[in-house]
Amino acid sequence: MNQIINMIIRQVTRQLISRGINAGFDKMGQMNAQRRTLDLPPDALDENGNPVEPQISREERRQQKLARQQAKRAKQSMKAMRKITRF
Questions:
Q1: Where is the sequence biased in composition, kind Basic residues (predicted)?
Q2: Domain assignment present for 49
């Protein structure tokens, strides 16, 4: 009796695992198909077909960093003002 139950459990788990693997491969194929349909120039993709981020200059990177820092300071000061004006 125990052997029969073990056999059934093995078959069910094998089916579940194979369904999960098949679903994963299907999803991967869909993602690759979506990646191929992007309207990007050929130099915007690497050898695997993945989109490549455009290189930004040092000055642009510095400006982005300053903008993030200013936004962080503004957020912190707003939090401080809320704490001060709370009764």
A1: 70-87
A2: no
Number of domains within the chain: 2
What backbone torsions phi and psi does residue 48 show, to the nearest 5 degrees? Answer: -95, 0
Q: Is there a domain that residue 74 lies in? A: yes
* CA 65/CA 56 separation, integer angstroms: 12
Per-residue pLDDT reduced to its tens digit, 5-23: 999 999 999 999 999 999 9
* DSSP helix, strand, coil percent of the chain (3-state; round to 5): 75, 0, 20
Instruction: Say which DSSP state 38 is in.
Output: S
Domain that holds residue 79: 58-87
The answer to pTM > 0.70 is no
